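> example.struct
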């Protein structure tokens, strides 16, 4: 007896028509995942950069605060009565006042400056200060009497007089040569006519003040943000200590 004839199974019509590549929706999903991964990496990079800047700013603020605290503590010495730190400015009080229409300093005030400035330089050499201190600015002032330009010149002469006192190696209490070199490198001179005159107290307007300037952040220099690897340029030493104000 013959076996019954079996009809071969029919192939589904869509079996040979299935695409080899992924569908358009799957492609878009993959692209979206790649986009999200790229965004996450970019956000992490930006966040890390901001965090480093915040750390550098905190380190700078801490260093400057420590430097200023050391200076404020120094001003508590009995020998420095009248010296006050206000913000980043040292007010020297009566110890740095000048006679009317004059840039001369008496012997007592000159000796005070020769004793005081080396103490300031010792603090400037501490790690907290040395990393961030940019310079000292000697600012001279004048009382309202007289013309604007005359008083501007007089205030500049008062700042220069302080430098002459500090750099005079023939004085009895002259700072060491290393301190005098530091004065050359770190001290800048400025003057003001009567922009900062003290109201109704002209004698206290004839003065000099010492202002501290600090470096700004520069992330390109080091991880700390300070260009400590770049030494400050030192002004060449010379033996000419003649004060140009001597003939004035």
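> example.seq
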């Amino acid at each position: 007896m013959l076996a019954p004839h079996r009809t071969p199974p029919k192939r589904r019509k869509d079996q040979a028509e299935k695409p080899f590549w992924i569908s358009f929706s799957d492609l878009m999903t993959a692209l979206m995942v790649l986009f999200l991964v790229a965004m996450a990496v970019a956000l992490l990079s930006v966040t890390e950069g901001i965090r480093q800047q915040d750390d550098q700013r905190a380190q700078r603020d801490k260093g400057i605060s420590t430097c200023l605290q050391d200076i404020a503590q120094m001003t508590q010495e009995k020998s420095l009565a009248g010296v006050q730190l206000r913000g980043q400015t040292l007010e020297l009080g009566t110890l740095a006042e000048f006679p009317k229409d004059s840039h001369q300093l008496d012997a007592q005030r000159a000796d005070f400056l020769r004793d005081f400035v080396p103490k300031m330089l010792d603090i400037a050499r501490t790690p907290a200060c040395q990393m961030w201190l940019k310079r000292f600015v000697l600012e001279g002032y004048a009382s309202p009497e007289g013309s604007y330009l005359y008083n501007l010149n007089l205030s500049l002469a008062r700042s220069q007089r302080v430098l002459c006192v500090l750099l005079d190696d023939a004085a009895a209490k002259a700072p060491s040569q290393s301190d005098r070199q530091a004065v050359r490198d770190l001290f800048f001179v400025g003057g003001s006519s009567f922009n900062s005159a003290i109201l109704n107290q002209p004698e206290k307007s004839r003065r000099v003040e010492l202002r501290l300037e600090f470096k700004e952040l520069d992330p390109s220099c080091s991880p700390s943000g300070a260009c400590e690897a770049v030494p400050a340029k030192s002004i060449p030493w010379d033996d000419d200590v003649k004060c140009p104000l001597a003939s004035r």
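> remarks
The chain has one domain: 40-247.
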